[in-house]
Amino acid sequence: MNIKQSLISSLKLIVFSVCISVVMSTALAAVYMIYTLCVNMVAGQQLAFDIQLFLEGLLLFLPLVLVLQAMLMTLFMIRHPESTVLPLAFYAAVYIAAWLFVLPAVVKTAPYGGSRYVGEHFSDKPSAGYFRNTADKILYYSSIDAGTSLANGMCVDTQKPAGNVFTFSNVALSQKRTVFTDSLIQNTIEMPASLSILVRYVQDFFVILAKCARESFGYWLCFASMALPLLAVVSLRRFSQWRLVSVISIIFVSIGVLVFNVLGYVNPAVVSVEDSINGVLTKIPPLKSLAEFGNLCVMLVNIIVFLILTAAFFAFEFKNRSFVEGAASPYGTGADY
After folding, report:
1. pLDDT over 60 (residue 299)
2. Distance of CA 208 to the CA centre of its chain
3. For residues 202 and 260, is the Cβ–Cβ distance under 8 A?
4. What is the helix (H) or strand (E) element at residue 141, kind and residue range?
5. Does the reported pTM lie above 0.90?
6. pLDDT surpasses 80 at 236
7. 217 exposed, middle or buried (CB, 10 Å; 0-12, 13-18, 19+)?
């Protein structure tokens, strides 16, 4: 075994882990800042970089990036294969250290479920001088009093064939029905339904993270059992001789583990089934003391998946070694030439 080459590969893996975490956290923080600014802006305003929103986005999304680190490092090892065990040891050490020390500290600092920063330039009223469509009307605000929220303008009732245009004055603005301040902005950048489902799952995951990180360390360790199957996805890096198949399998399993853990804490149907299973598990003396620290059913499923993937690791490693040894001389020893 080439120790020098193994150390270089391990250092490359650590550098990649740090760099990808910085890049992804920065990119997600920028998206969060821009989207939050757009949600709170009104027509006629210009976007401006908000350092506090950007830093808030960093704190919000860094834990998610750290959770996905195992998947990303495994994809790196597919692109840069290494036959020695040292990079795998560094891979495991970096990921476990992130879960034990970095993640709880960051989650406790991030404003999950708490008060968010609100910029001074954010407005809670639409701007005047623009036509806006509602379900059955077209509204035009000629002026809006910032202090009293009384508006003057014109209304077109699209349900009437004639006599459908009239003016109004000193009419109170209705309360916001969505998170957007201005319907014009909402019509432009509102997320599609498929993306909003993904965002809702991410928000649920953030809520679970915050709750578990602020409980006792034992509670956090039970929740951190999720890291075991996420760590063991490295076994799938040699799942197939086709790298794309291995990549798809790694992404699929990683997302499946995350979705199961989120549903295990927030989905009513899954939680009701787990409550029944937990009721049986708590009758087992060794498991009874663990019940107060978290969801036993979720923790045991995570451990079972981890054991299955660990067994797959040795199977795929043996298969790969046999394949490599057999492929060394595909046409024989060359004695016949």
Report:
1. yes
2. 12
3. no
4. strand 137-144
5. no
6. yes
7. exposed
Whole-number Å distance between alpha carbons of 47 and 54: 13
What confidence tier does 177 reach under pLDDT thresholds 50, 70, 90?
Answer: low
Q: Distance of CA 32 to CAs 124, 180, 208, 260, 300, Å? A: 19, 14, 20, 25, 35
Contact between 109 and 59 under an 8 Å Cβ cutoff? The reply is yes
Per-residue pLDDT tens digits for 94-120: 999 999 999 998 988 887 765 566 555
What does each C-alpha distance from 95 to 18, 61, 69, 164 come to in angstroms? Answer: 11, 17, 7, 65
Nearest to 57 by CA among 69, 45, 49, 68: 49
CB atoms within 10 A of CB 166: 9
Q: Which ranges of 1-67 does DSSP label H, i.e. alpha helix? A: 3-40, 51-67
Q: For 63-91, give the DSSP string.
A: HHHHHTHHHHHHHHHHHS---SSHHHHHH
HSE toward the beta carbon, residue 281, CA cutoff 13 A = 19
List beta partners, residue 306.
Answer: none
The predicted structure's pLDDT at residue 332: 43
User: Residue 219, Cβ neighbours under 10 Å: how many?
Assistant: 16
- In a 3-state reduction of DSSP, which class is residue 170? strand
What b/e sequence results for 308-318 when a residue is b if at least 16 CB atoms lie within 10 Å of its CB, and e otherwise? ebbebbeebbe
**Dihedral over alpha carbons 310, 316, 318, 324 (to 10 degrees):** -150
**Contacting residues for 81 by C-beta, under 8 A, at least 6 apart:** 237
Question: Which burial class, exposed, middle or buried, applies to 196 when counting CB atoms under 10 A from its CB (0-12, 13-18, 19+)?
Answer: exposed
